[in-house]
Amino acid sequence: MTDARDPESPVTSAPVPLLDPREGIPPVTAGPEALDDVVTAFAAGSGPVAVDAERASGYRYGQRAYLVQLRRTGAGTALIDPVACPDLTDLGEALADTEWVLHAATQDLPCLAELGMRPTSLFDTELAGRLAGFARVGLGAMVENVLGFALEKGHSAVDWSTRPLPEPWLRYAALDVELLVDLRDALEEELRSQGKLEWALQEFAAIAAAPAPAPRVDPWRRTSGMHKVRRRRQIAVVRELWQARDRAAQDRDVSPGRVLTDAAIVAAALESPPNVHALAALPGFGHRMGRRQLDQWQAAVDRARALPEKELPQPTAAYTGPPPPRAWADKDPVAAARLSAARAAVSALADELNLPQENLISPDTVRRLCWAPPAVPTPEPVAETLSSLGARPWQVQLTTPLLTKALAARPTEA
């Protein structure tokens, strides 16, 4: 195994291409009887279960799963079509007491939960790689660096809603779970040797116990290029167009970007066209767009143009946390000094431990602590504050001393 503590160490031999699953490509499970067989087989299997899901990001609306892959000792590999089998609650219950092995778990857990599958314990091989100090933590890189095999990754961004799924795609999907448990075992040993296994287990438990993410407030504010839009009425145009696009994308079950690009939304917001003819002249609203579509977008612009001043959106979203760090020096120089000292201390410790700063302690947690520290900033109340902000015990133990010291920092004289 490549030394995770030296991610730049050269690979001593060429990776072995992994071309086919050990038992071949399994048939796609696409009916109740076949699903019952999968549930029975995986319930009778042993050890952890490798789990993966494929979505159609960039093609379809939302983040639903279009293929679910599993592998477990004694059960082999299963490829399940969640379009034909939309309720996998029985499978989830059969694996309730089993450790799930996923790569980048937070990406797949929401779409799996929609199908009725929720783990009670898990092992995240991507997060394990980060904690172990690997510079590249994609599945292909991890399998190559840790196990010495090369995965073919050419189908990661295809339209997984395609039916029937081509055989090369199914082979790729099966191979994604082929070595996942082997990778888990090797990473567990590496973490143990580095004294980091308990840290990882706490992180995995937090992911498994986390509630479903709340819907994002004002998701239209994430429109690419939004920083160019300054005036409130222009911002209203972005909001109206984004919402109209989202409704159309949902109705058509296509990715919103395929209905109307973010660049077109921003262009319309900046120009605020008075009619369809002016709108059609803007980038993204060209001659290929039908009159009915143009009318739809112009109606959204007109709604924004007609809004009373008091109903226009504010330039920035409401936020209950601390202000952006760039504003701290003016708003509270003492808090700015605390944050600067805390960031430097966290960075130094993360380097010493050979893991990313954001995994040692969340940057948002550090900001909130430094903006509103405990009245008596001694180790015990600092530790309590970190815990209340969601830091895990290992993070609290490691960072409390250095953050307590940072809270005493004061601005330096110019």
Automatic annotation (TrEMBL):
An example Gene Ontology biological process: nucleobase-containing compound metabolic process
MF GO annotations: 3'-5' exonuclease activity; nucleic acid binding; nucleotide binding
Superkingdom in the source lineage: Bacteria
UniProt-listed PROSITE patterns: HRDC
Ranges where the HRDC domain occurs: 231-311
Family matches, as PANTHER family: RIBONUCLEASE D (PTHR47649:SF1)
Protein name (record): Ribonuclease D
